[in-house]
Structure formats: structure tokens, C-alpha cells
Amino acid sequence: MATIQEVTRFLEDIAPVGSQESYDNCGLIIGDSSEKISNILVTLDCTEEIVQEAIDNNCNFIIAHHPIIFNGLKKINGKNYVERTVLKAIKHDIAIYAIHTNLDNAFQGVNAEISRRLKLINTVVLQPKKQVLSKLVVYVPFTHSEQVKSALFEAGAGHIGNYKECSFSTRGTGTYKPVEGSNPYEGVKNIRSEVEEEKVEVLLSNHKLNEAISNMLKAHPYEEVAYDLIPIQNVNPYEGAGMIGELEVPIPEQEFLDRVKKEFNCGCIRHTEFLNKPIKRVAVCGGSGSFLLKDSINCKADIYITADMKYHEFFDAGKQILIADIGHYESEQFTSDLIIACLKENFTKFAILKTRINTNPIKYF
Prior knowledge:
Layout: H1 4-14, E1 27-30, E2 40-43, H2 48-56, E3 61-64, H3 81-91, E4 95-98, H4 101-104, H5 110-117, E5 121-129, E6 133-141, H6 145-154, E7 168-176, E8 193-205, H7 209-219, E9 227-232, E10 236-251, H8 253-263, E11 270-271, E12 279-288, H9 293-298, E13 303-307, E14 322-325, H10 328-332, H11 335-344, E15 352-354
Parallel strand pairs: 2-3, 2-15, 3-4, 12-13, 13-14
Antiparallel strand pairs: 1-4, 5-10, 6-8, 6-9, 7-8, 10-12, 11-14
Helix pairs in contact: 2-3, 6-7
């Protein structure tokens, strides 16, 4: 039977915790990662009712999109819903895990799911992340170059978009002189050696650095490994906020909003005035997305679908774009389906359940 740690490692390969926003609290919030899993309950939010549902269905692991603990708790005495939820989970030995803005920023994450529901094509990240890539350069003898490359690839290095195991190699001559206290793989102490070596270069996400370096050092034959870490300024087009794509065939604004309202079961859609032009390019951001409005305009989107827009932010559309606020819960409701689909492809020894509870605190009269 799988442990909590095995499942979280799998999820963090899709959405590394290191890619969460600075204000967030992703990862295992409550529980022991070494515990065996009975069953899993997946939900958008974690509340007392969700914990009870987990108890009723023999689930000892809850995976939620939103973290139950955002800010530090100085006391846990049940005075609010957060404290009561935490108390109930601990009392019944139920672990709680959050996969929030790291899944928002994942290329196949929340916004990709929204885009699929809207049948968008040619999708790309709306605001790609910067300074999240590095180049790892290592010098290795010819005899071990394949072994070292395989170790790097296993850690996720050299993965660029739809291509894996990408690297570049050049050959040359390395020199070194072992001194007292050394234990050289080849060569004699106090005599300079020359060795035919291969310079291997790979691009990798900064989230993969520790694992890649660890694998590389284990696979490398040298006692002292010569390697360079080079920060890359390029944006990473496969990590970041929001997504933009196109409809295969442009359609009128009202017809498109009707489609959105039905697909996302919206109580209502708050929107700016119609611009009387067809919808072709569509920008999306699940949850609170006002920070991406300028990016949506700059990318020539006809409509921006998001949630939690404030009154004065609607003015910022400036008749350049149609803003559609469909609601926070509504925009992210299919995140549970996304998580479940990923898990079911890889874990079959326990039940993976979707909550039956609608946790949306907002009601429409």
C-alpha cells in the first residue's frame, strides 16, 4: 500500500512546491508522510464537513486545492472554522495536503483544465515565470558520460516542453594533480594527469536542482566533481500564471458567455460592456486573477475569464477587452477532477474520491 509521501512526491513532480507563490502554504499541512493510505478524498476547500466526509468514507488523506492554514496559528482551540477543521483532522488522524498556486503555475495545471473545458487550442502560459531555470555543466570521463547523463535525466534535467533527455556535449582534455589526502579515481599522487573528458550541459528547472546534483554526484566516478551552475535569464514558457489560447471558430460575445455559464454552472457572470466583436482569443486565470489583466490586454485577448475582480478594476478594461468574472469557486471547481485523473492513472490500490460537498461559501439569490 502506498504511503502519503509516495503520492505527494508524484504530485510534486507535476506541481513542485517550490513553484508556489511566496504568500502560499502548499505541501503536507497536517499528518505523517510515512503513513499508509487507506483512501483519498479530493476537494477544493477543506472544512469540518469535508473532514467528516473523509471519516465517513474511511479516507485518511485529504488533498485540497486551498490550504486550510494560510497564516500562522498561535492557538488551536476551536474558535474559528480553521482551528476546528485542524482539530478534527488531528483527532481522527487524517492528513491534509494542499496543492494550490504550484498547481496554478503548472503547465498542465488549473488553467490548462479551464482551457480544455472551453475547448481552446494553441494554448500558452499567459505570464511565464522568470529566473526559474539553470544550466548545469559537468565534466566527466568518457567512460562514465552516459551513466552521469542518465542520472541527470532521471532527476528531470534536460526536460524542455515535449522533449526529454535534452543535453549538449563537447569533448576535451581535463587535467588534475592528486595531492596528499586524495583518493583519485585515476592517476598518481603529486603527478599531473591528463584525461579525455566530456563536458555535459543540461537545462533544468530550479525545483530539480538538488535532486539532479545528488544524482550526478552519485553517478560520477571522481572524488571531487567539477561542475558549474549557471542561472538562466530566459523565461520558462512551461511555468507561470494564467493561460491564453484560441477558439477554433470565433463566436459572438453573448454566445460565448452562454457557453461559459453552462460549462461552469455559474450563478451569474459579472462582465464589462460588450465590445460587439467576435471572441477568438481567450485568456483565463482560475481564482483571483486581476493581476493578469494587463497581460491579457497586451496579448490581444478578446476576453479575460477569471474571478474576484474588484469594482474599480473593471474600469481598467478600457474598452480593449471583455472581462468576465465567473466566481472563484466556479473557476476552480474542476481542479479536483484534474487531480483525481492524474492520481488514478498511477495509483490503483486505494479509492480516490471526489467530495460530494459544494464548499462554495457564496450563494446566489
